[in-house]
Amino acid sequence: MKLSKTKPYLLFLPTVLFLLLPFYGLFAAVYQSVQKNGSFTLEHYQSLLESDRFLTSVIFSFKNAFIATLLSLMIGLILTRFFYTYLERYTPRLIVWLPMLFPHFVWGYMVILLLSESGVISQILQTSGWLNDSRSFPVWTRDPFGIGIILTYVWKEVPFVILMLLPVYASIKPEYYDLVRTLGGGLWRTFTSVEWPFILPVLIETFLIVFSFTVSAYEVPALLGTTFPEMVSVLSYEWFYGSSWEKRPLAFAAMITLSLSILLMAWAGYAWMNKKRWKALRGRFR
Predict the structure, then answer these.
(1) What is the domain partition of the chain in residue ranges?
(2) From CA 77, how far away is CA 204, in angstroms rounded?
(3) Strand stretches in the chain, DSSP E
(4) Residue 192 carries which DSSP code?
(5) How far is CA 236 from the centre of its chain?
């Protein structure tokens, strides 16, 4: 009897132990970011706000993450919308999800191999006479606009978007489509009236997941980015492992600021979705 009562807590114990390490890291980072010579201070956060390099890095990070996430959602939605009956089969679905098996840095190396000035595509264009030399090929990797970073994340995250949307499309009853067609609705009316209410919550959740991962990731921006502007994660790594110990609190403050921004976005998305669900329960859709 006692074992049956304590069993749920014992099953929950590995999760608690697993979460101890990241929570310890979070609290240690918060503590280090508000300490100087043993006293509480917000000086490190003030230094961040006065740093042009950090503000440029924040704008660069959010711009790249937003573009990569939006493109991933649009491409994933289009592919799922028009091919979901085909993707329900095992082999096509396995092919589409294949990129998810590889780590992000492997996909970053693939982008360098294919799209760098001396990459495969550049060599093919030179051999076929379309380019005179490798300098004529556009700079898509290690560029100041983050094109290589965006391409890597779009290529990697589109299968994840399809993974999230495919069960939603498979669950929509065919009778809904028949009703819209009977009333004279076309493709756009079918999308807005039948599909949009189902996929909107999943799109928002997927946006938050992909955006949060992209804006805080390190390996792809370090591999495909430039020294300036750099993503916040790369800048924090440089501050943390640099020769100056005085910049370590700045690294903690930068990552705490980024984490709080992500939490704020997640809370706003969650609150907005709850408001929509509450209106739907009361029969109000607008």
Answers:
(1) 51-278
(2) 12
(3) 35-36, 39-40
(4) I
(5) 19
In the chain, count H helices and then E strands.
Answer: 13, 2
> What's 51-278's CATH class?
mainly alpha
| Secondary structure element (H or E) that encloses residue 28, with its range | helix 2-33
C-beta neighbour count of 268 within 10 angstroms: 11
Each residue's pLDDT, cut to its tens digit, for the chain (286 residues) gives 556 667 777 777 888 888 888 888 888 888 888 888 888 888 889 988 898 999 999 999 999 999 999 999 999 999 999 988 888 788 888 888 888 888 888 888 899 999 888 889 988 988 888 888 878 888 888 888 889 999 999 999 999 999 999 989 888 888 888 888 888 888 888 888 888 888 998 999 999 999 999 998 998 999 988 878 889 999 999 998 887 778 888 999 999 999 999 999 989 988 888 777 666 656 555 5
* pTM: predicted TM-score of the whole model, two decimal places: 0.86
